[in-house]
Amino acid sequence: MSPARTLAPQQVCRIVVLDVATGESILVLETDERLYEAPNWTAAGELILNGDGLLWRLLPVPGARPVRLEIQGIPELNNDHVLAPDGETIYLSANDRHIYSAPLAGGTATRITPNTGTAMHFLHGVSPDGSTLAYIRLEPEDESNSGAVHTIGADGSNDTALTDGSAHADGSEYSPDGQRIYFNTEQFSEAPGHAQIARMHPDGSNVEQLTVDERVNWFPHLSPDGTCAYFLSFPNGTTGHPADLLVDIRFVRGDDWTRAVTVASVFGGQGTVNVNGWAPDSARFAYVEYPIS
Predict the structure, then answer these.
(1) What angle do CA 80, 11, 6 make, to 5 degrees?
(2) HSE on the CB side for 72, CA within 13 Å?
(3) Residue 223, class by beta-carbon neighbours within 10 Å (0-12 exposed, 13-18 middle, 19+ buried)?
(4) pLDDT tens digits along 114-138
(5) Distance CA 36, CA 56 (A)
(6) Is there a smaller number of Cβ atoms within 10 Å at the N or the C end of the chain?
(7) Cβ neighbourhood burial of 230 (10 Å; 0-12, 13-18, 19+)
């Protein structure tokens, strides 16, 4: 896996909170010292971000400064991390290809995925009851597997494939009621990289396409109350979810994803909204942009 990302010369990292009712954006932090990525929002009202392969806490108010979350027993982290419903645990993807759990207050991490084979595990979702994780499994030795949605027990049991990996999938995240898994997939198009947002039942059945457009759509994130969502939209022809592009953050109210509207156009991509950044009140979400002067 790739090492922790860093800022380019003349590039800054800007952590922003957007109010979905007013459209107002609040700049929480601008820095050229570290590249932060992928904000979560805790029940206690703090942002959790990745930076330098570590986790950081940040109050979502202007002038706040990040504080390192001390977690032992884990290698360098990537930007896939998800908060457990209990408010006390965080699940993490690390650059040794495994998924871990750790106390949100800090402490020692525990590996969840088995230390066998060569599979790479990228975490994106946790069920509302906290019992099951949704992740993307890549098999480097299997050219036919370009990324499949799997679920696994939070205790490492019952690893189950929901898609077969023949069409790349990513961003698998449970709905707040646990009745659907939302994700992005390339299965609806023959054009390389043309991902669209979809959802399915937690057993992998009844796959339903939600966005239908010329842009490349990734990382669907439903609000805690289930009434709205946002996702990342790349320009047509984009392959994967690269960094340092002009991308749109699109907002959906209700269940008609074809009526999504752009609420922010930012220089970013990778790291901007890889994980769910909704506030507990479903009124705001956090994202990161990386402008270059």
Answers:
(1) 40
(2) 2
(3) buried
(4) 988 889 999 999 999 999 999 999 9
(5) 9
(6) C
(7) buried
Query: What CATH architecture does domain 13-289 belong to?
Result: 6 Propeller (2.120)
Cα–Cα dist 156/137, whole Å: 14
- pTM for the predicted model, two decimal places: 0.96
CB atoms within 10 A of CB 179: 12
- Would you state the pLDDT for residue 275? 98
pLDDT, tens digit, 9 for 90 and up, residues 168-182 = 999 999 999 999 999
Q: Report the pLDDT value the prediction gives residue 17, as an integer from 0 to 100.
A: 99
What are the structural domain ranges in the chain?
13-289
Centre a 10 Å sphere on the Cβ of residue 116 and count the other Cβ atoms it contains.
6
For residue 257, the SS3 value is helix
Q: Tokens 């050229």 map to which residue?
A: 32
**Which amino acid belongs to residue 187?**
Q
Task: Give the pair of three-digit tokens for residue 260.
Answer: 């999504």
Residue 111's identity, in one-letter code, is: R
